[in-house]
Amino acid sequence: MPTASGWLYSPEGFEKGTVRFHDGTITEVSRKAKGDVLSKGLILPGFVNAHTHLGDAVVLEEPQGSLEEVVAPPDGLKFRRLKEASQEELTAAIRGALQRMLRGGTTASLDFREGGQRGLTALRDGASDLPVEVAALGRPQGLDYDQREIAALLKIADGVGVSSVSDWESGALKQLARHVKASGLPFALHASEVFREDIDRVLDLHPDFLVHMTAGRRSDWERCAEEDIPVALTPRSQMFFGRVPDIPGMRDAGLRLMLGTDNAMFAHPSVMREMEFAYQVAKLHGGVPPEAILAMGYEAANLLTGPSRMAIQEGAPCNFLVLDLPWGGDAAYRVIKATEADIALLAIGPWTWDRERGWLPKD
Ligand SMILES: [Zn+2]
Question: Is there a single domain that holds both residue 297 and residue 326?
Answer without folding.
Answer: no
